[in-house]
């Protein structure tokens, strides 16, 4: 199971909207998905109540201590993807969600306040050595402001922009607000719209990023196996040297 967390200290940057958009895009791409709500504000539960369909379960987990055992159970049940929506600010539940994530997505509008507010989330992701990426959301269609925001985020992370800034950028479009009001995701509300194209593109980007993480794990395993073999060879050589000497 892959666990994706949407987190940032700043309220209103699009955590819940992107969680719902990505959940439906992933479901339509063939994944089994559950939405996990750690925000007592209840945006996802309210959305689920407006939805005349129980195809996507919204599960509240408000206590940090419940997080790891519940994720373990979900993984054992065969679920493929858990998408976690967190509250603004930085709570114990958010920290737990980031700690057990495979990818932490940090949404930010292209404004100084939003970008500054990413720092604390970034520190938590780094402290737990979790992969993270920024998602620029509610952007104008194009302009200098977006380039500046993208470059600032890349500098903040001190990493290659292509790894750290999710693509495509998600433009400010009414479809996002209207779909949520109707208990839908954009890909259901406006299947042929630009908003859907962007959210589907974002899901594909996330999928690729998760595969990249899986490759990294594989490389780590190969390195650790090679280290193990070197260790055995070194021990044998030492034994042989001792035998020769005696
Ligand atoms: N790309 C977008 N285009 C237009 N409106 C958007 C977009 N993304 C989010 N919104 C709107 O912005 C508002 C805030 O979004 P959302 O509730 O997803 O943010 P949040 O980070 O979850 O907020 P909170 O911190 O309060 O939980 C909502 O009204 C939502 O519909
Ligand atoms: Mg929210």
Describe this entry's structure for a reader.
Helix content is 57%, strand content 14%. It has a single domain (2-221), classed as Rossmann fold, CATH 3.40.50.300. It has 246 residues and is of the alpha/beta class. Magnesium ion (MG) binds next to helix 1.
Could you give the topology of this structure?
Elements: E1 2-6, H1 15-28, E2 33-37, H2 43-50, E3 57-60, H3 64-76, E4 81-85, H4 92-99, E5 103-108, H5 112-116, H6 118-127, E6 132-139, H7 144-157, H8 161-164, E7 170-171, H9 174-181, H10 186-189, H11 194-245
Parallel strand pairs: 1-4, 1-5, 2-3, 2-4, 5-6, 6-7
Adenosine-5'-triphosphate (ATP) is lined by residues 11-17, 39, 41, 43, 88, 137-138, 170, 172-173, 176-177, 180.
Summarize the structure.
This protein has 246 residues and is α/β, with parallel strands linked by helices.
Number of helices: 11
Number of DSSP E strands: 7
CATH topology: Rossmann fold
Order of strands side by side in the largest beta sheet? 3-2-4-1-5-6-7
Can you give keywords for this protein?
246 residues, binds magnesium ion, binds adenosine-5'-triphosphate, alpha/beta, Rossmann fold, globular
């Amino acid at each position: 199971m892959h666990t994706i967390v949407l987190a940032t200290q700043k309220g209103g940057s699009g955590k819940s909207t992107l969680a719902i958009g990505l959940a439906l895009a992933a479901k339509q791409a063939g994944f089994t998905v559950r939405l996990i709500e750690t925000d007592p504000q209840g945006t996802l539960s309210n959305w689920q109540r407006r939805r005349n369909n129980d195809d996507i379960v919204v599960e509240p987990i408000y206590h940090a201590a419940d997080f790891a055992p519940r994720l373990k159970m979900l993984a054992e049940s065969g679920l493929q993807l858990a998408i976690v929506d967190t509250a603004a600010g930085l709570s114990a539940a958010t920290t737990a969600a980031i700690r057990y994530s495979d990818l932490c997505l940090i949404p930010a509008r292209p404004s100084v306040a939003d970008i500054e507010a990413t720092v604390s989330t970034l520190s938590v992701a780094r402290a737990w050595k979790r992969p993270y990426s920024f998602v620029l959301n509610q952007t104008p269609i194009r302009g200098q402001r977006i380039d500046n925001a993208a470059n600032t985020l890349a500098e903040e992370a001190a990493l290659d922009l292509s790894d750290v800034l999710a693509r495509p950028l998600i433009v400010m479009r009414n479809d996002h607000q209207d779909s949520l009001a109707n208990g839908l995701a954009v890909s259901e509300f406006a299947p042929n719209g630009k908003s859907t194209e962007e959210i589907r593109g974002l899901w594909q980007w996330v999928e690729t990023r998760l595969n990249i993480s899986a490759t990294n794990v594989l490389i780590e395993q190969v390195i650790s196996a090679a280290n193990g073999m070197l260790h055995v060879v070194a021990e044998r050589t030492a034994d042989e040297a001792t035998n020769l000497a005696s």
